[in-house]
Write a structure and sequence with these properties.
- GO terms for molecular function: alkylated DNA binding; DNA-3-methyladenine glycosylase activity; DNA-7-methylguanine glycosylase activity; DNA-binding transcription factor activity; methyltransferase activity; sequence-specific DNA binding; zinc ion binding.
- It comes from Rhizomicrobium palustre.
- Pfam families: Ada_Zn_binding (PF02805), AlkA_N (PF06029), HTH_18 (PF12833).
- The structure is a single chain.
- By secondary structure, this protein is of the alpha+beta class.
- Among the domains are: about 70 residues, DNA Methylphosphotriester Repair Domain (3-Layer(aba) Sandwich); about 100 residues, Homeodomain-like (Arc Repressor Mutant, subunit A, Orthogonal Bundle), CATH 1.10.10.60; about 80 residues, Endonuclease Iii, domain 2 (Orthogonal Bundle).
- It contains 23 helices and nine strands.
- The protein has a five-stranded antiparallel β-sheet. A four-stranded mixed β-sheet has the order 3-1-2-4.
- A hairpin with a 2-residue loop joins strand 6 and strand 7.
- Helix 14 runs antiparallel to helix 18.
- The termini are far apart.
């Protein structure tokens, strides 16, 4: 398992070092409880401490979560990210409920392009627990968060967290906590939107995240303000809305959605949209070896790579953004939504400004784009994408390597290397995706008035691997700064 030596772990615990939050958990043998390294409880003696790389590993060893420091809101472990994209992708799928039982491990491994044995080995190496145990731990910790932070009924929480029945839900909590779910609920939150905390490892550059999303916000679908991001969402035929605000060491998400069973998947999507599982300190240390990137990272140490709510939506946006400015692409997206979206009411979204849904493949395929203000080639590309996604609902799913998905996309009209790489960076959460021909990236790397060729930039970016996507984000931020100066 990828764990620091015991003495380093213990020093992190004794100093309550927030840099290790999510990277390790401490189990206290004298109490049978495991904690985050920032737990305010008195530090246990070294001989009573065992350290684990994940909450799942601690629970599999027989320890129960601390009720004080609440491991359910700690950042996801990210120290190993970049060394195992397979584990990262597997966790993303697990977060959306793709591993509800032992029988599904074969399907999960197949989607990742690895064998079951290799998948188990990778999980044991990086997280100290099997995929099934990781999935079970995520479910029960998410349920614990809903118990303490929402007014959902116990049956709704059981459904939202992926338990097959209330009985299984109750049994799991009594076994782990020694209490029933009802006994754990100290208070009830106000009825309305379901509010959950989304942890991350500091620093987090909220201002840059909201600036990026705000520059691309689609009228009626999104609202991006200095202290708030909100948007409408659609999932499995149901519509709702989310609102995210910055907190202290976490983001606060308010979720309006009529089907509680999809909450775990919604939270998983939000974590990827806001890139909450990145270890930006490790990424920054690697990229700072480049003389051009070092001052950019020093300026914005908490910069993240924004994801997307929906892979199909981003594919559409990528086509709309070809050979035009960000502002022009945003206008096109607004027109497309106005052409295709039903009208939503505030009782669904919680805000009268949120009244539209970004078109899915069915709505886009049915839309009349003849009068849409775009070149015919790009209109045909939109229609071809919608037709392909309707014919194959798993067109944009990851099966095997990222390159496989990108290859499928580039076979469609209008999907060249830039479009596919940009889509992979944000939709696949590929930390190494890099659209080398991007004009803003080339502008940002100008030296002495000379702009590098895409091939030269790609060659230089070899030293930035496996974090080229984060290098791109820093360069985009630099280019935006220059445009404002």
């Amino acid at each position: 398992m990828d764990m620091p030596p015991f003495d380093i772990c213990y020093r992190a615990l004794a100093s309550r070092d927030a840099r290790f939050d999510g990277r390790l958990f401490v189990a206290i043998t004298s109490t049978g409880i495991y904690c985050r390294p920032i737990c305010p409880a008195r530090t246990a003696k070294p001989e009573n401490c065992r350290f684990f790389p994940s909450a799942a590993a601690a629970q599999e060893a027989g320890f129960r979560p601390c009720l004080r420091c609440r491991p359910e809101i700690s950042p996801d472990a990210a120290a190993w990210r970049g060394t195992s994209n397979t584990v990262s992708r597997a966790l993303a799928l697990i977060a959306e409920g793709h591993l509800d039982s032992e029988a599904n491990i074969a399907e999960l491994a197949d989607r990742l392009g690895v064998g079951e044995r290799q998948l188990r080995r990778l999980f044991e190496k990086h997280l100290g627990a099997s995929p099934v145990v990781v999935a079970q731990t995520r479910r029960i910790l998410f349920a614990k968060q809903l118990i303490q932070d929402t007014a959902l009924s116990m049956s709704e929480i059981a459904e939202a967290s992926g338990f097959g029945s209330v009985r299984r839900f109750n049994d799991a909590f009594r076994k782990l906590y020694g209490k029933s779910p009802s006994e754990l609920r100290a208070r009830k939150a106000a009825i309305g939107a379901i509010t959950v905390k989304l942890g991350y490892r500091a620093p987090y550059d909220w201002d840059q995240m909201i600036a990026f999303l705000g520059g691309r916000a689609v009228d009626g679908v999104e609202i991006a303000e200095p202290s708030r991001y909100a948007r409408t969402i659609s999932l499995h035929g149901h519509m709702g809305a989310i609102e995210v605000r910055p907190g202290k060491g976490h983001l606060v998400a308010a979720i309006r959605f009529a089907e509680p069973r999809h909450l775990l998947a919604i939270v998983g999507r939000l974590r990827r949209l806001f890139d909450l599982d990145a270890d930006v300190a490790a990424i920054g240390a690697h990229l700072s070896a480049d003389a051009h990137l070092a001052p950019l990272i020093a300026k914005r140490p908490g910069l993240r790579t924004p994801g997307t709510w929906d892979a199909f939506e981003l594919a559409v946006r990528a086509i709309l953004g070809q050979q035009v400015s960000v502002a022009a692409a945003r206008k096109l997206a607004c027109k497309l939504v106005a052409l295709t979206s039903p009208i939503l009411t505030p009782d669904i979204t919680g805000d009268e400004r949120l009244k539209a849904i970004f078109p899915d493949a069915v709505r886009l395929a049915a839309a009349d784009l003849s009068s849409f203000g775009m070149p015919n080639a790009r209109k045909k590309a939109l229609s071809a994408l919608a037709d392909a996604a309707n014919a194959d609902p798993r067109l944009l799913d990851v099966h095997g390597a990222f390159e496989t998905v990108i290859a499928r996309l580039t076979q469609l009209p209008g999907f060249g290397p830039w479009t596919a790489q940009y889509w992979a960076l944000r939709a696949l959460r590929d930390s190494d995706a890099f659209p080398a021909a991007d004009l803003a990236l080339l502008r940002a790397m100008e030296e002495g008035g000379a702009r590098p060729a895409p091939s030269a930039l790609l060659a230089r970016a070899e030293n930035w691997r496996p974090w080229r996507a984060y290098a791109a984000q820093h360069l985009w931020a630099q280019d935006a700064d220059r445009a404002l100066s």
